[in-house]
Design a protein that fits this description.
Strand content: under 5%
Largest sheet: none
Distance between the termini: 80 Å
Shape: globular
Structural class: mainly alpha
Number of helices: 29
Low-confidence stretches: none
Length: 616
């Protein structure tokens, strides 16, 4: 009996996965449905997948299967009721009957359980605290107190309409995010990821520390189509981490390089992480505008990581790869160039003003068609099936996290907490932007320790970004700062998701890998402050301002990398290291005076590196 139940649950899981991907493709072709129907249907498929997974495993205890079954039935009933009665609920003005109240409670409990299973406790606890705050706020004093709301009012606000669970984050996950995950799955099925890996090794393999640089380059290329740090680690790290270890890197260093390199994929256009799509909706702009603003920050991220890796390789005299292990650049380009056509089509569609969903659809169709240009890249029925299921599985964590974060956003909108916290940030920082930015980063690191990037971004962007805007930061700069900090939490111990993913491959301690990844990403932690003080790095300003800011920021990033590593062509003495770091930091603040002072310090610090070493 147990085997029959497990097998049946497995079939239901696959059916839900295929249903989710096919539903997303169908609505991309015919047009996105009404908010409650689109979002409710996607969440329904996701909840079915979450609760059938443990039931499908024979080793799961019978009472756990029973609990999962009850939650599956309850959440499905609630979501189906929402979808079937969305018109009546829309005109109810928040008034709900006893049945709707019960179904609302069941949905929230099921959502919290699903979030705990797939994301972890932190966001469940935080959203639970927010729900309690909505009810007991009248017992608090000071700025954060409010009049308090009844349980019925809270449930109605969170479950009915698009103010809570079915709000903007879930809406973004149910449309744009799922389509771009599908695009990444189709590109991977057509051999695009393998091509990126071979291309990266061909370009960097002959240089010192080649495998580590290949990890950086391949992760940057993978980041253009996959905005998930852990997924990038598993995809590229399976090859690069063992390769780094074979050429002399310690296991924790190899894992750290891959973790920090893969993390940057969440801010690498054209396909950024889920949080970027949510950002576009939250600030009311197009995704293409977000992708454009992210170009220079993402380049600076990878420049910083590349030079940190390069100086580490020179310092430790890491050997080069064997010539036999390096693929021929012309051959791999000739055999696989067609896999890039879909990316060109995707970017072109976004530039031409197509909707994000339609652009992703065009990219998917192009990837499928172009896969038949070569026999080894053809998307067969088996590959098609795997791509559809894999994409649906990639949506689960994002959709669950977004739905749970909707509870937080719903409470914030109900109680007016956002405006109160913005005022608090300004008061605590005494009007100093730098202090406000540091406090924001600390909050992001703490929240990001147990949440996906999207959830951490949603919380901080909702509560803190308005305060940064009041202090003079442009809207897109405030939100990009929050996004960047949320992204970096993937390598910040003790809960560093990218480091944990790399630890499994490197076979080393994830905490050790996380701290080492922070070392390689130390300059990347400073990059957000560059564009916070120089909005031109986000394409805000004239072409001259953008070009000047990019050049000075790049020089600053390289100088910081050399100063922190204490090595360039040869060792850098401590006084000169401090000068290089100081010069790099001066490049953050815009203005010819700080740039000139920074350049002088950097020139003095690194000038000895230009001298030729004496040979015997």
């Amino acid at each position: 009996m147990n085997k029959i139940i497990s097998k049946a649950a497995g079939y239901v899981y696959i059916a839900a996965a295929l249903g989710l991907s096919l539903f997303a493709l169908y609505t991309a072709v015919t047009g996105v449905m009404v908010d409650m129907v689109q979002r409710g249907t996607v969440l329904l498929f996701v909840m079915v997948m979450v609760f059938t997974k443990p039931i499908s495993q024979e080793e799961t205890k019978w009472y756990v299967k029973l609990l999962m079954g009850l939650l599956l039935i309850g959440s499905s009933a609630s979501l189906i009721y929402q979808i079937a009665n969305y018109r009546n609920l829309a005109v109810s003005m928040g008034a709900i009957n006893e049945t709707e109240m019960v179904l609302g409670v069941v949905l929230i409990v099921a959502l919290w359980t699903a979030t705990k299973l797939r994301v972890g406790w932190p966001i469940v606890i935080i959203s639970g605290i927010f729900a309690l705050y909505a009810h007991f706020g009248s017992y608090l004093t000071g700025m954060i107190s409010h009049r308090g709301y009844s349980v019925t009012r809270i449930i109605s606000h969170l479950v009915v309409g698009t103010n809570g669970i079915f709000g903007t984050p879930l809406g973004t996950a149910a449309t744009m995010v799922v389509m771009f995950i599908l695009f990444g799955s189709f590109l991977e099925a057509s051999g695009g990821t393998t091509f990126f890996m071979d291309l990266a090794i061909a370009l960097t393999g002959r240089s010192r520390g080649g495998p580590a640089k290949a990890a950086v380059v391949s992760s940057a290329l993978m980041g253009t189509i996959s905005g998930n740090a852990a997924s990038n680690v598993v995809t590229t790290g399976t090859f690069t981490i063992p390769l780094m270890k074979r050429t002399g890197y310690k296991s924790h260093v190899a894992g750290a390089v891959e973790a920090v390199a893969s993390t940057g994929g969440q801010i690498m256009p054209p396909v950024m992480g889920a949080a970027a799509f949510i950002m576009a909706e939250m600030i009311g702009t197009s995704y293409s505008s977000i992708a454009l603003a992210a170009i220079i920050p993402s380049v600076l991220y990878y420049v910083s990581v590349f030079f940190m890796v390069h100086f580490e390789a020179v310092k430790n005299d890491v050997s080069r790869m064997d010539a036999d292990s390096i693929p021929d650049l012309k051959s791999i380009w000739k055999m696989n160039w067609h896999t890039l056509i879909s990316i060109v089509v995707l970017v072109g569609a976004l530039v031409m003003g197509y909707s994000t969903v339609r652009a992703a659809l065009l990219g998917i169709v192009t990837a499928f068609v172009c896969s038949y240009f070569r026999k080894h890249t053809r998307i067969t029925l088996k590959k098609l099936y795997e791509a559809l299921v894999s994409a649906a599985e990639g949506v689960i964590t994002v959709a669950i996290a977004c739905a749970c974060a909707g509870i937080i956003i719903g409470v914030v909108s109900l109680t007016g907490l956002g405006l109160k916290l913005s005022s608090l940030i300004i008061a605590v920082s005494h009007g100093y932007l730098l202090l406000a930015l540091v406090l924001t980063f600390i909050a992001l690191f703490i929240l990001g320790m147990g949440m996906p990037t999207a959830a951490a971004y949603i919380m901080v962007a909702t509560l803190v970004a308005p305060g940064l805007q009041q202090m003079g930061l442009p809207t897109i700069a405030a939100h990009m700062f929050c996004l960047y900090g949320a992204v970096l939490s993937a390598i910040t111990p003790p809960v560093a998701l990218a480091a944990y993913a790399a630890a499994g491959i490197a076979k080393d301690n994830p905490i050790k890998i996380g701290f080492t990844a922070c070392k390689f990403g130390l300059v990347a932690f400073i990059v957000p402050f560059f564009f916070a003080y120089q909005p031109a790095l986000l394409w805000i300003g004239s072409a001259t301002e953008v070009a000047t800011s990019f050049v000075t920021a790049t020089v600053g990033v390289v100088a910081l990398s050399a100063g922190i590593q204490g090595y360039a062509r040869r060792a850098v003495a401590w006084p000169l290291r401090l000068m290089a770091v100081a010069g790099g930091l001066l490049m953050i603040y815009p203005g010819w005076a700080t740039d000139a002072a920074g350049l002088v310090l950097i020139a003095v610090a690194l000038a000895p590196q230009l001298r030729r070493e004496k040979t015997a």
